[in-house]
Write a structure and sequence with these properties.
CATH architecture of the largest domain: 3-Layer(aba) Sandwich
Distance between the termini: 29 Å
Number of domains: 2
Shape: globular
Strand content: 15-25%
CATH topology of the largest domain: Rossmann fold
CATH superfamily of the largest domain: P-loop containing nucleotide triphosphate hydrolases
Number of strands: 12
Helix content: 25-40%
Radius of gyration: 22 Å
Strand order of the largest sheet: 6-7-8-3-9-10-12-11
Largest sheet: 8 strands, mixed
Order of helices and strands: EEEHEEHEHHHEHEHEEHHHEE
Structural class: alpha/beta
Number of helices: 10
Bound molecules: adenosine-5'-triphosphate, iron/sulfur cluster, magnesium ion
Length: about 325
Amino acid sequence: MAESILEVENLRKYYLQPRGLFSPFKTEKRIIPAVDDVSFYIKKNETMGLVGETGCGKTTIGRSILKLTPVTSGRVIFNGTDITHLTPSEFRPYRRQMQMIFQDLDAALNPKMRIKSILTEALTVHHKLSEAEINHRIEELLEKVNLKKSKLSSFSGELSGGEKRRVGIARSLAVGARFLVADEPTSALDVSIQAQVVNLLKDLQKNLGLSYLFISHDLRIVELLSHKVAVMYLGRIVEMGLAGRIANAPRHPYTRILWSSLLKKKSQEATQVPSDQHDGRWGVFDFERSYSGCRFAPRCPVYEAKGNPAICSDPANAPKLSDIGNGHKVSCHFPLE
Ligand SMILES: Nc1ncnc2c1ncn2[C@@H]1O[C@H](COP(=O)(O)OP(=O)(O)OP(=O)(O)O)[C@@H](O)[C@H]1O
Ligand code: SF4
Ligand SMILES: [Mg+2]
């Protein structure tokens, strides 16, 4: 088995939020278990897709792994080293190997710097290089991300969305990234450009052996890029396994609903019937709703069809993520056949 580049063990990140201006308890704080006992690993050269509806905790996982936010408990192990409690100076050598591609195309690009200066700064942050070496490395980077040399004299505001994304990726490569958390890296781009960025990420993985945690709402792209997929619901991973099995043979009712909305969209596109986007089930569902036992019970069609079995709502019996073979894990008392 290939070595893991990242292991996440029992990760928890709880936020404290004020109860709100109109609450009678407005001075009290509410605990938001944004990430609640999450464990997974990513092997070298592997992509793990992370999906789930808005607010379920995907970005919080990415930020916790990269130490952009302190964790409540649990461990993050990068390339065999427990980085969870490293000080900023101890973490520095790892930081350059672990980078985040943010949804915001401008996040990593200083608008006052020309592209050449952005890349030069990234190349020389850890290494002293001569001008000839810098020029050579920049040429290599441009080739890797397929960007024209003429763009080096531009400011980021003069670039298209796809070009900005390429510069952002080149910048991560320049500092020495081995592992990338890509948080919605294609959502701000036109559909035609999305495919180019997905192909670029695939090529870079093949040529440089990169590993990705790929966060996206676009299940089609997740299927294309990921070797395995984790499905999150309100802070927990409810199903995890090889991408093909998650997409085509899901065992958790939530995963099936998620992917059936994609199948519906595909068939609507094929028949050219306009999509209504929502099927009524997808209202905003967040940590404010009370739950006991399985967090998905209030929306679960299996729970409803089985006449609300007590085990699903028993606080002492919350379903645990269990292995059902071939590394496929599911957290449900009545997994789908
Ligand atoms: N800094 C913060 N302080 C308090 N609560 C936060 C903070 N950041 C996120 N949250 C809450 O944590 C939960 C998870 O948020 P997160 O951004 O991880 O979700 P997400 O799955 O990335 O959503 P999206 O798909 O919309 O990007 C949400 O309920 C959010 O409101
Ligand atoms: S444990 Fe029960 S409520 Fe939860 S997903 Fe499974 S069947 Fe539905
Ligand atoms: Mg997010």
